[in-house]
């Protein structure tokens, strides 16, 4: 009886030592791991601030990174205890794959939003042409971007297509080129038309001297001789200059002896006896 009790005591003592050692190792892994995570997160936060990552995105990304690192530490600690984690990880992976497939569109928009906020191809206030729409950017969210059209319609565009598709940003450069196609009639004086356009451009202080403007004969069309006129302006003056020049051409070409042509058709009538 005493021998059996002694054997039981030895067994329990050995198990306590073995399991206690694993517990101590597990606690050590957790303590050291969480301390390292804290140091890593501080470095990541400084990196985000240095790269000027969008302030609204930082807490979200930091939370994801922190959760992933802590999950790895917990799995490592449980492995130290001798708990088999292979099946558990496989189940989590399968569940994650199923959720990812079910939410593929949403995840695509989320990834697109993250890319837009990190790389900043545009910002709030920029004028974009993208996904078949043109308007000013009102708000950039994680899943979609909100734009206002010139006629004050609100357009909500998913970030997935916006991040992966092509776009035109009209606000990135400080200057823009204004193009006009000016038609005069056959028989009108081309040199006179060119000098009149030179005068109109020189009279408009909003048109930049550098780069220099450009005027040339573009096409000999069916009903008109077309001049191409190109001038550079500050981006904010683009539409004002464009519309004002159109008005000036219409009001003054006639006074200068120049005709603004329109499509014409000759009709020949054959009289039959």
Structural class, from secondary structure content?
Answer: alpha+beta
Number of domains: 3
Q: Total number of helical segments? A: 7
Calculate Rg over CA atoms: 36 Å
Distance between the termini: 144 Å
Helical content, roughly?
40-55%
Total strands: the figure is 8
What percentage of the residues does DSSP assign to strands (E)? 15-25%
Q: In terms of per-residue confidence, which ranges show pLDDT below 50 for 5 or more consecutive residues?
A: none
From N to C, what is the helix and strand string?
HHHHEEEEHEEHEEH
What profile does the largest beta sheet have? 5 strands, antiparallel
Shape: elongated
CATH topology of the largest domain: Helix Hairpins
Q: What is the correct CATH architecture of the largest domain?
A: Orthogonal Bundle
What is the name of the CATH class of the largest domain?
Answer: Mainly Alpha
In spatial order, strands of the major sheet run 4-3-2-1-5
Return the average pLDDT rounded to an integer. Answer: 84
State the gist of this model.
The protein contains seven helices and eight strands; from the N terminus they run H-H-H-H-E-E-E-E-H-E-E-H-E-E-H.
Descriptive notes:
The strands form two sheets. The protein has a five-stranded antiparallel β-sheet with strand order 4-3-2-1-5. Helix 1 (2-50) packs antiparallel against helix 2 (58-80). The chain is 51% helix and 19% strand. The protein folds into three domains: 2-102, Orthogonal Bundle (Helix Hairpins); 124-169, Roll (SH3 type barrels), CATH 2.30.30.60; 175-252, 2-Layer Sandwich (Alpha-Beta Plaits), CATH 3.30.70.100. The protein is built from seven helices and eight strands; from the N terminus they run H-H-H-H-E-E-E-E-H-E-E-H-E-E-H. It is an alpha+beta fold and 273 residues long.
């Amino acid at each position: 009886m005493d021998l059996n009790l002694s054997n039981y005591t030895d067994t329990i003592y050995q198990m306590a030592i073995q399991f206690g050692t694993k517990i101590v190792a597990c606690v050590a892994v957790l303590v050291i791991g969480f301390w390292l995570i804290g140091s890593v997160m501080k470095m990541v936060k400084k990196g985000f601030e240095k790269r000027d990552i969008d302030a609204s995105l930082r807490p979200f990304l930091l939370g994801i990174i922190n959760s992933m690192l802590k999950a790895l530490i917990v799995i490592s600690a449980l492995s130290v205890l001798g708990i088999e984690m292979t099946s558990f990880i496989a189940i989590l992976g399968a569940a994650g794959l199923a959720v990812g497939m079910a939410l593929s569109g949403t995840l695509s928009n989320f990834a697109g939003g993250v890319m837009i906020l990190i790389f900043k191809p545009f910002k709030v206030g920029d004028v974009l042409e993208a996904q078949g729409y043109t308007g000013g950017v009102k708000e950039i969210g994680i899943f979609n971007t909100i734009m206002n059209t010139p006629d004050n319609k609100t357009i909500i565009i998913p970030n997935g297509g916006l991040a992966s598709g092509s776009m035109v940003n009209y606000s990135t450069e400080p200057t823009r080129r204004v193009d006009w196609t000016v038609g005069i009639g056959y028989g009108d004086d081309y040199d006179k038309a060119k000098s009149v356009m030179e005068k109109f451009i020189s009279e408009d202080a909003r048109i930049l001297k550098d780069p220099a403007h450009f005027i040339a004969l573009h096409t000999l069309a069916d009903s008109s001789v077309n001049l191409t006129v190109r001038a550079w302006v500050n981006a904010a003056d683009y539409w004002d200059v464009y519309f004002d020049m159109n008005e000036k051409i219409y009001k003054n070409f006639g006074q200068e002896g120049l005709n603004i042509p329109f499509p014409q058709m000759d009709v020949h009538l054959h009289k039959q006896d």
